[in-house]
Design goal:
Elements lengths: L2 H11 L4 E6 L1 E14 L6 E14 H10 L3 E5 L1 E3 L2 H13 L2 E3 L2 E3 L5 E8 L2 E8 L7 H14 L5 E5 L8 H13 L3 E5 L13 E2 L3 H8 L6 H15 L3 E5 L5 E5 L5 E3 L12 H14 L4 H15 L10 H11 L3 H4 L4 H13 L4 E6 L6 H11 L4 E7 L1 H8 L8 H9 L6 E5 L5 H7 L3 E5 L10 H6 L3 E5 L7 H9 L1
Parallel strand pairs: 1-4, 1-10, 2-8, 4-6, 5-7, 10-11, 11-12, 12-13, 16-17, 16-19, 17-18, 19-20
Antiparallel strand pairs: 2-3, 8-9, 13-14, 14-15
Length: 487
Amino acid sequence: MNKNDSTSSLIERLKDARVLTVGDIMLDRYVNGSVERISPEAPIPVLHIDHEKVMLGGSGNVSANIAALGGSGTIVSVLGDDGAGVEVVRLVRALGTIDFNPATISNRPTTIKTRFVASNQQMMRADIEDASAIDTDSEKEIITSAKTKIKDHGAMVLSDYGKGVLTDKVLQNIIKAANSAKVFVIADPKGRDFSRYQGVDVITPNKKELSEATSMAVDSDDEIVAAARSVIKSAGVKYVLATRSAAGMTLVGETGKPVHLKAESLDVFDVSGAGDTVVAVLALGMAAGGDIEQAARLANVAAGIVVSKTGTATATASELAHAIHSRDMGAAEAKVMSLEEIEIKAASWREAGLKVGFTNGCFDLLHPGHISLLGDAKSQCDRLIVGLNSDASIKRLKGKARPIQVEASRAQVLGGMAAVDGIVVFSEDTPVELIKAIKPDVLIKGADYKIDEVVGREIVEAYGGKIYLAEIKQGHSTTETVKKLKK
């Protein structure tokens, strides 16, 4: 079995894995709107609020990632006796595969992080929290709950946001219990004293946290490795997986060569929650029977997916599989996706504030007319998806002598064009089902059509999308080219 087959098998096994997450849970609020003027009361922008959304943060986002990948598990944490706590419980239950019976503290607020966003840029963040250590009774409840549940899980994540749940006493007791049960333990650390996590299998600091904990430089590969080895020795952990933003990640163990993983994302829109995704995928990978390097590589790919989305985002097993498949193919072939993959991709583009366009055709023999159409189409959107007629559908539409090029060849040629961002092959006579699934912001056809002749026009206009007739370079036609070749 080669490495890619092994990775694909691991992704499939994630749905059978269970992860226990212990730590600080919170509510992430996003207040989205637009800024068009400065306040007359003070030199500050006025945010005209359009909509709000709430998501799970902290250990809740770790579990949201676990659920999105098909896994299951349990959260052990505390909440305040307030409306935000009720909302957190509702969001966890909506995940479907995560158990949660929080310890409730009446005089302690549920942590809320509210982000004010305009044009996909955060303007300000406002926090409600009590970061003091939880009381003794709550400590006992957390320890008892974690010890009781740990044997039913393949890995445990310690999600430490410094909000008071993971006290020294809690950490010592539950790490010891996990070690006795031979459950793999991952710590997403906080603070300068990493010795608090003694006994965990892997610790996942970012570059800044690693530097502050060791007082060492962390700018180069060698410096990262040296700092990581210092943590392994002083903190008593087996591995350090250092997350390095645009430089990717580095996995360092007690023995063996360090592994440097390049960043996987080309489009970075929001890094919020990326660390939660890393520990979630790492934990799921280990709980599913993967080895540490394999799980780290999977986590690196997942991090690349979530930073290309806005807000506290998650990655799915389908996105993971496609990203790995795409990475191992040429860029042109990587643009060819299944309908499910293109739906997910289109949704993530729109979530990032990008306008999605759609056009379709046979593209049998690519000629200047096609290039003109695709170039004009791309001018109307940020990401252009092309629906490509299958060989079977072309035979029905054009006759048994067509197509000249099989669909794989046509897709590869289209994928080599910079204007094209995604390709999906369809076998129906019309692209109506694709249009319903993708929901493009702009539906594009050649100017040789009239508006009322465009298939899918009613669907797109019904939800507020637009129709655009793209310019076509005259004097070029696949049918006429074929006729010339036959002479």
